[in-house]
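Notes on consecutive records. When two proteins share a document, each keeps its own sequence and its own token line. Never mix them. Below: protein one.
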Amino acid sequence: MAAIGQAGRRGSDVRSDCWISVELNGSGGIIVDLTSKVEAMYGDAIRSSVTEGMKTLGVEHASVTVEDAGALPFVIQARLEAAVRRAKGTLEAELLPPMTEHATYPTSRERFRRSRLYLPGNEPKFMPNAGLHGPDGVILDLEDSVAPSEKDAARCLIRNALRTLDFCGAERMVRINQGERGLDDLGFLVQHNLHMVLIPKVEDPEEVKAVDARIAELKERHSVTQDIFLMPIVESALGAIKAYEIATASVNVAALTIGLEDYTADIGTQRTLKGRESFWARSQVVNAARAARVQPIDTVFSDVADMDGLLESVREAKSLGFDGKGCIHPRQIAVMHKGFAPEDKEVEKAKRIVVAFEEAETKGLGVVSLGSKMIDPPVVKRALHTVELAVRSGLLDPDWREGGGADA
């Protein structure tokens, strides 16, 4: 019996995706049977892409059935590769789209992470426009949002999205799976300008070290030189207790976050809007992150229709010391940025500190003072952060020094 592999989604409700079935044959070359919503414009191009893709994957004889619902080329390539992998069992080759220039920008350890938008890793329809909504980070998710049977196909899809899509400057994040599956995920990600890896359900610093070691191994193998940062996710009572150990497990940890759905289940309670049941764990994450000199990032707000509740939640998170939150819908992004924006009095104080710091530097002074009060380096660093955030939030003109705002 001929080996058959299938990947993708089909049906009347599917858009921006395709379903591909590959039946390996002993002879006859590559036969493509295509049904497409865009047959008139792109039918020939799709057939040619599939035929060339099969050659790249080392398959000379196969019957390929494609049901296309407006999938972009990177999606068709990912689905084709996944189908061939399932038909053959193992596959050395990869079907990689060209790395576009707008997918090559870098990230940095200290960048803002006010909002991170989760995108299901096996749903390509959400991916192309994600960056247009202006999140600080885009998370292509391989974990909870992807069914176990589809995680292999999602790997190909996320890899091709990293190579192709313009996320408009958003940090390019992937949440991998737990354990060995997560370590295997990295082989599809590290060499494609991955910025940050989210590590789920961490309870032991050794889990972070294992991910860090695998990334280092893959970076050396593929001659990757840019930094890839880590964001462990605390999602259990044990993880919360070990938060500081987790945050300091690697120099590549840049942020520490918490997931409250799993945490509240683990401690045997229900998550509430007031959040009293998670106050200790969230405070633990904030203090662990600050002690480790990494960013503390709060959990997602799950009610996408409650904008007032979201704003209140963001302001509460800020008051606890968090720098950002997770979001599951684009409409939440602007509200998060508003909630994390500094207040006027914060901006004015920060401006005065920055000016005092810059004057001290100009005069070659080793200490910074504001009036009769000495300003410590961490305070200066926080003031610089506040001023930059105010500029990013549209609360302060980038040329505020020239406008006399420093003396306000």
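Protein two starts on the next line and is unrelated to protein one.
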Amino acid sequence: MGCCHADFAMVEGSDRGFTLGMPTFTFGAGVLAEAGPNAAELGLKRVALFTDRGLSGGEHVAKVKASLAASKVDAVVYDEVAIEPTDASLQAAVRFARESGADGYVSVGGGSVIDTCKAANLYATHPAEFMTYVNAPIGAGQRAPGPLKPHIACPTTSGTGSEVTGIAIFTLGSLNAKTGIIGRRLIPTIALVDPDVTRTLPANVVASTGFDCMSHALEATTARAFPRRLNPVQGLHRPVSQGANPFSDALATQALDAVGKYLVRAVRDATDVEARTEMMYAATLAGISFNASGCHLPHGLSYAVSGLTREWHIAGYPQGKTLVPHGMAVVLNNPSVWRHTAPVSPARHLHCATSLGADARGATPDDAGEVLAGRVIELMRAVDMPNGLSALGFGEADVDALAVGAEPQYRVIKNAPVDVGRDEITALFRAALRYW
């Protein structure tokens, strides 16, 4: 993305560099079977294996357990992870972790499982009142005071990228919106990214997590460039997410290219091994990218959508409670955001659009937001995503409440390329009610 490296010119008082953090990761068909040797090499004797009820009796968990047993690593299983975790479900997981006697952790599941395992490891290793580590200004935003125990992350969905990030997201009941815990020490020690797991994913899960992957890459590329972050701290004291940078640009571009080519194929045909493998790889690339640069408005707005949706169910996800899949909540805000942010960096928005497969021939800088929004809408329609927030039951009367819920998410919102306040956030939600 050479055309945009001028964006990284230093300004007075800015940070002069950026720090990258990621685990050692292995990508390839069948690598879940390497969980045991990796645990043994880390010196682990007894691990707490985190998963959810839907996966606990399945082949992926069985493969990991067999590998651990073959390497003489004892495993005690926690399968009570909540899909779309809450502060209450995280605290239940922490209690298990403290009582498990484990010297390390293995997570087998989607982002909810991996995020829950990160939080359990943090609070069990460095006990504290729950809000201590929760992002400011909602919580105290303190960093982990020391290293965590080893964590081997084994993702079973193709989108969250949680296996390579230092971020754990959950719904805070008192706020009725999502927030998170972020820190470099939360990054898993090892990630085993096995595209074989995607054979068993329902189409709706592939679509939702795929759009999460897409938005990670779009937000990483369009985020405020790292020299514009007036944060002079250095080295390990730099925040995990520091703004767009040349490294995150390169990985995000590759991820967007894969999403544009393979997302629709992966959703429509579970036997399309190439498409599902490429989406799994794109998810990891986008995860590394946004961990380094940070997300911004689409994710910041999505947290209020998830918390305030009153009645929503979708096939492929647990029934019995209202649940908006994270990637769905994120993509429903995408087009309105890109139309708003494109004027400040039209070259980056056009680059994202063409990487996703848009035909931008003849497009001018003034067209950038519409070209990118149009390509995202095209992909949404191709896999039957809801037509904006109105499809989830929101209307004009709800936009103020959505804005109130999103406004405290300044960790991500302030990473946007433009400054926004309550009025702009309200307008973005209003523009996201319906797209076609």
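For the record: The mean pLDDT is 93.
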